[in-house]
Design brief:
This protein has 584 residues and is α/β, with parallel strands linked by helices. The chain contains 18 helices and 12 strands. It has a 6-stranded mixed sheet with strand order 6-9-10-3-11-12. Strand 11 and strand 12 form a beta hairpin.
Amino acid sequence: MFKTLAASTKGYRLPMLATPLFIVGEVVMEILIPLVMAQIINVGMAGEGDLAYIWRRGALMVALAFLSLLFGVLAGRSAAVGAMGFAKNLRARLFGKIQELSFGRLDQFGSGSLITRLTTDVTNTQMALMMALRILFRAPFMLVCAAAMAFYINSRLALIFLAALPLLAGAIFLIFSRAFGLFQLLLARYDQLNARTQENLTAIRVVKAFVRGDFEIDAFNKKVDELRQASFRAEGLMILTMPVMQLVMYGCMLAAAWFGGNMIIAGDMLQGDLMSFISYVSQILMSVMMIAMIAVNLILSRASVSRIVEVLAADSGMIEPAPADVEPAAAGREGEIIFENVSFSYPDGEEALQNINLRIAPGETVGIIGGTGSGKSTLVQLIPRLYDATGGRVLVGGRDVRRQRLAGLRANVSIVMQKNLLFSGTIAENLRWGNPQASQAELEEACRQAAIHDFVASLPAGYQTVLGQGGVNLSGGQKQRLCIARALLRKAPVIILDDSTSAVDTATDKQIRRALAENLTASGRVTTLIVAQRITSVMEADKIVVLDGGRIDGVGTHAELLAGNHIYQEVYYSQQEGDEEIAG
C-alpha cells in the first residue's frame, strides 16, 4: 500500500527528509528550556540571589525559545511543502488512472465515489502525511527525551507517569481497534452524498421542470443526516477517550506536585528541579496525547489510502497487448468490421449480446435498429473497445481489437455517443476535440455536413461562442449536430452514430444523412454505422441489422426486411401510422 503511494513523493522528498531534522532541533531546544529554568531557580534565586546569573540564564532561555520557534517554523513549512506536493502528484496519478479505466471499471467504482477519492480521500491522506512528518516523529522523540530528563532529575518521582502509561495505552488501543471500520462507513456516506449531489446538479432542469425541488431537498437532507450520524460515531471515540487522557495527564501533574512538594519540604529535592520535572512530565503526557491524535488521523487516512490504492491498483479492464502480440495492419481492409460469435455480459451478470456474427465491408453504411435494451449501443461500443466482448472476438481492419494498441484503434473509430457531451469552452475548441489541428475551413465544412453551420454562423461570436458546462446554452438537437461535426473532423475510417439524430426533426435528419452519403460513404472511404430508432434514418443503408434481445433477428436491405422480417415490419408500420396521425 505505502509502496504504491511512495511514487507520489517524487520531487518533494528533500523537504520531507528535512522535516525530521528540523524537529530534532526544535525538541532539543524545548528539552533544554526547563533545565535552564531549574538553574535560574536553584542557583540564581538561591540565598540573596545572583541577578547577573539570572540575566545570563534568562537570555539563554530566550535564545533557546527563539531557536525552538525557528526550527518549528521550518519543520512546519517543509512538512506542508512535502505534503502538498505529495497530494498534487497523487491527484494527478489518480486522475490519470481514471482516464485509463474501461467503462466497466468506471461503472464498478461509480462517479460519486471517484470524486470522493480525488477530493476528500486525497485531502485526508495529505493531512495525515503532514501530521506524520511532524507529530509522528516529534511525539516519540519528545517522549523519550523528556522521560530521560525526568529520570535524570528524580527517578523515584518519575515512576508516577509510568503508572499512567497503561491507561493512556489502553485509550490508544481502543481507538486503533474500533475506529477503522467507523471511518470506512463515514467515507462511504461521503460517496453517497457526492453521488446524490452530482446527480441533482446534472439534472437540475428536470428537477425544476417536474417541481421536485422539495423531494430532492428531503433526499439530500437524508444523505446529510446519514453522514452526520456516521461522523458522530467515528468521532465519538475521540469524545470518549480525549477527556480520559486529559484527566490522566492532569492527575499526573497534581501527583508530581504533591509528592515533589513533600520532597522539597524533606530536603530531598530543590524547587527548580520540581518545576522542571513538572514541565517534563507535561511534555511526556502531551506527547502521548499527540500520539493518540495522530493515531486517529492515521486510521482515517488508512481508510482513505485503501480506497485510493484500490483505484491505483485496479487493472484498467482494457489490457494493452505486448509489442510482440500487436498484429500488423492489414492492407486494403481499413474500415472492415467483423463480429465472430460475440457475446457480452455486464459486470452485474446481465447478458446484453448473444452469439453475434456479422461482417461489415469497408465503406458500407449499416443501420442498426431494435427495441430499447436490444443491445444496439453495446454492440457498437465493442468496436473501439469501450467494453471488451466476454465471448468471441471483434475484428476492425482485419485485426482483433484486443491485439491492437488502444490509441491506434480508437484513432480509427470516430463515435457519436447517445448522450451528447460538450465541454466548457468555445464551439471551435469543442469541435477540435475531433482534430486539434483542424483549420477554420475544416470546422465549417464539418458543421455544414452536420447541418449546424448556419446556426453557428448566425451567433454574434460565431465559432468563438463560449458554451456553458455541458453545452447548457444549446438545444438538444444543436448539441447532437455539433457532436456529429466533431466526429466528422476526425476523418476516421469508421464512424459510429449512436442514435445521434434523435433530437433533430426529420427534415434535418434527412439533410445530415444526405451530407454523409455525399461526402463520406459515396467515396467508399468511410464505414458508417447508424444506430437509430427511426427507420427513416437507416432505410437507405447498404444493409440493416435488426436486434432483438441481444441477438440478430435479421440482416438485409430495407426492401428485404420489409418483405420478410416481422420485427422490422412491425416497427416500420407503427412509425408510418404515427407519422400519418401527426400529419393529420
